[in-house]
Amino acid sequence: MAGPVERDRAALTRINALPRWLVPALAAVPTVVLAGLFVLPLTTLLTRVVRPSSIRDALQLPGLAGVLWFTLWQALVSTVLTLAIGFVPAYVLARYRFVGRRTLLAIVTVPFMLPTVVVGAAFLALLPDSWHGTARAVVIAHVFFNIAVVVRLVGAMWAVLPTDLTAAARTLGASPAQVLRHVVLPLLRPALWTAATVVFLFTFTSFGAVRLLGGSAHPTLEVEIVRRATQLGDVDGAAVLSILQLLVLAAVVWWSARAQRRGVHALGGSAHWRHARSRRERRGLSAVGAAIAIVMSLPLVVMASRSFRLGDQWTLTAWRKLGTAEVRPGVTLGVDPIASLLVSLRFATVAAVIAIVVGGLAALAIAAARRRGALLDVGLMLPLGTSAVTLGLGLLITFDTAPFDWRASWWLVPLGHALVAIPFVVRATLPVLRAVPNDQRAAAATLGASPTRAWLAIDVRRIVRPLAAASGLAAAISLGEFGATTILTRAGTETMPVAIARLLGRAGALPRAQGFALATVLLVVTAVVIVLVVGAAEQEGLFDARRH
Amino acid sequence: MNARRFFATALVLSTLLTACSSDNEPKTVTMLVYDSFPIKDTPLQDALADFTTDTGIKVRLLTAGDAGTMVTKATLTAGNPEGDVMWGVDNTLLSAAIDAEIFESAPVQVDYGDVCVNYDIAWFEDRNVAPPATLDDLVAPEYADLLVVENPSSSSPGLAFMLATIARYGEPGWEQYWTDLRANGVEVVESWDIAYYERFSGAAGSEGDRPLVVSYGSSPPAEVIFAEPPRSDAPTGVSEGTCFRQQEYAGVLRGTDHPTEAAQLVQFLIGERFQRELPLTLFVYPVNKVVTLPEVFTQFAVIPSDPFSVDPAAIAAHREEWQDRWNEIVLR
Fold first, then answer.
1. Is residue B186 a part of any domain in this protein?
2. A125 and B198 in contact by Cβ < 8 A?
3. What is the ipTM of this complex?
């Protein structure tokens, strides 16, 4: 039987009922994007190349069970460790304000954005030789690359967690550990689930890190898919394995989306960040900050230092000769760093705009549709769990006849990047939207606002900050994306990761050092994008807080 | 705007657009290339510009992935290709490409090169040991724990080196060879750049400690050309008896809209003007006999007189089986 409280809640919901057309209107664009650029290409590929016999053949591949088991195992271990370790920087960066905070945030985020081909080599150099080619090396690299996900997604939630709740708990005599366990963790649960899901998706489908660090003895499903598609020409086998991978991940995402919804609490009150007050607190903060900065930046420093090293000496030659200049009479490297930088920046901007628009609309639709939003929610996550090679080949054969012959269109590349970035935008926005307390809407209704007006004033305004923060993430994802880009054909539009891979892929000291120089440029650009966009987002947030 | 005006405007626009692409305009031929093919500002581009000047045909380069990916894509789009000409199908992929009917007519060979064991000259001189010369040498005790190779499942030089052993020892002798090589401490990595720069000791600026690596016969001249500060001798040498010959082909793709122009381009690719630029840009050898090699190549590169090779049809038929077998022998 419904008690008085439930009845009140039902009444509140009814008063605040949004018009029926709102959800379909919001969901239209994301649905079309998802259907046209994800579902259609994959089904086209499947129906075109897969025969019943190829399903049987692919599922009976020798060693498949072992590959599946290793893939699952390393993804689980990586996810748990990333969450546990990422918790500390997430807390420090969300709760404290201190000098160098933005830089620290950038240092933590950059590894996630850089192509593995770049950081992987430096990472390899830092690990002891005996660890090369071990599962341990893969897990360590996964933690390093994915810490940013925890800092971003959990941090975004933590930053809006009302401080008066924890303060009240402390006043009532709870120890910090008790506050963490009984107040903070339950409130963070949705964000923790989200971060865990995203990290799991990334580590389950990880390619570069596994190949570089895990060596030959530890292939994952994705490594096998890429090998089939690109080395053996066995596209049907690759497609079947991609679907297998997708099914596993769809199940995980579905399950986690349910768990996430169950854990949602409406959050009222205000959030404050703090400055370290006592001397002890200041010291602790500096120590933790320094430790995070050193650990996270070490591979990046090693990588950058290699651009100053030619043969056995330190030199600026690689930097001076970066560009189109002849390195010897009649010999050029055919890589134009400025052009590739501009291409990358253009793609990043386009990808970020698409991701913000589509992802923002999707998040609003999913939140407004409540339970029924799950389908779109899960659907938009799936591109993250899909093999880039398979999706790229699907796009290739889907849009190949006029007037939809888009194969050589440059915008297919940023669109592909946006497909990967959209889930992040949704993830960063949704927990904030779901945490909008009903009494705020009720108050708006009481003050005479129509449900739509209240929704515009409360929900839509709330997502501005997470959206702005996510746009930096989307741009950075595009800057570093390597997998899908290499499949989609392009003319004269070489992105930086592609140019770097080309330089690092040839013999000779100079191209090698120039590859690392270009990687350093990418690192700096990515860091600047993060600092600028995050800075802008937080100023916006401050402004809001002051107005409340 | 009412419907009639809309259609009138659309009609005018479409007429204009058609007019723009009429026969008077220079034709553009699109050439698909693998991603290590430079796309701008190299002597290859100068040569292609000369082709445009002579014939009025423009050339556009499209890159996508490595050679394997390029062939996979062409297979999927056979008959409705992304471009008109393809550059760079090698003999390990050739048979599969021809079976998939991606070409209009038989492709022509455009260049060749070798995958060979390279050695660190200084390392062997310091120890007064002769570097290995043949595949047989590599399993000898004095070369224990010195060699690093790439996985044939993920790397094209790795595949070429495995094929060299299959050509040399046949079936099933090559399996025993790899068992011995494993017992002799061969190290396996996933890609050429990890092998060459992280594990090999001979390349300038490399981090490794192994003096033997599977690389290219043209790696030593690259070490000289790109050395900084410049040097007059190569730090690495080539073991001549370990080489597998790689040949690259180019051809007109089936379904092209410009068969005549595409064929003209393929003819140009094997002509002297284009071929003479190949060594210093792609580090491969020209097939055109008129072209003379640059001095740095005649001095430091090794072109083995009798390299190993395997019939492309046999490679296409057995590649996966051989790779799986190799995995069992070397990695399990």
1. yes
2. yes
3. 0.81
